[in-house]
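=== RUN LOG ===
request id: a7f3
mode: sequence -> structure
chains: 1
length: 144
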Amino acid sequence: MPHPVVVGVDGSETAYKAAEVARDLAVALNAPLLVISAFDGDHHEVIRSGNDEFVISATRDAEKVAKGVAGNLRTNGLEVTHLVARGKPADTLISEAARTKARLIVVGNRRMRGIGRVLGSVASSVAHGASCDVYIANTYDADK
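=== RESULT ===
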């Protein structure tokens, strides 16, 4: 795979907005797009109702998010793949970007203001730890 543009998604509107920016940058750079959904642990729960059994799994939820976003971002001429990985979002983005020799990581600026700025954010961690360029997309208005 040529050097991709990497973006992380978690099912939020702000992450989706960052993913749209990543798609546009990938198209402009003629690069593939890699959509990543990370999860901290494989928590799962089994719910039984009569003869039916439902399994709620962090892995399955992350796969659904990554695959759904990747599918929505597909456009003519753009190669879009998705990946699900166990780990903290920032660490996962940094390590997968290094592994794939990513050209760019796109993150949203959610939690970069107020108390989130003090506690840290994925964008801040990625910006400080990435071995490639990082683009921080303005996603403040995505949840409105």
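=== NOTES ===
Residues 5-59+70-137 form a domain with the Rossmann fold fold (CATH 3.40.50.620).
The radius of gyration is 16 Å.
=== END ===
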